[in-house]
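Re: weekly structure request thread

Next one in the queue (183 aa):
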Amino acid sequence: MRLKQYILSLRKSRNWHRTSGILLAFFLLISALTGVLLALKKDVDIIQPPTQKGVSKSLYTWKPVAELSELATVALHRKYPEQKSNTVDRIDVRPAKGTAKILFTEGNWEVQIDGTTGEVKSIAKRYSDWIESLHDGSIIGDTFKLISMNVLGWGLVLMIATGLWLHYGPKEYLKAKKKAKKR
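Done, posted below.
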């Protein structure tokens, strides 16, 4: 590659690197900060309530899932009457702990219930799901998530490629310049 081509290549890389860095910085910062919080979710109780322990690990002794769901719903509505319209979104069964986590559609509510006795072990907010939706962009919508994660991924690839060239390109330029002087 001739010297002029090296210089032009480095200038283009610098412009691409700067522009993509500026455009991606905000989203990368959000993704990085929420990623740190998600890495800590099992260690920080306010992010995700700790999993309680139930009586039995054997699913054969457990109440039916429909009954656990009903018990959790009644418990949430009783403790927080303003949550009357809140319905079950999903149930996270933890046989090794003897509990089921019943997660609700609105407000990030979680009710942990003993699978065998049906005793409510915990009613708390679960912020990890909200943090995760912010982390992956699904808080805005699934289309935004798909587009933003692809833009971030390819943007990082571009940043790495241009960053490597900006690091190694000048060294190649100096080598080429020395060769040119010898001629």
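The radius of gyration is 27 Å. The chain has a mean pLDDT of 91.
Next request, please.
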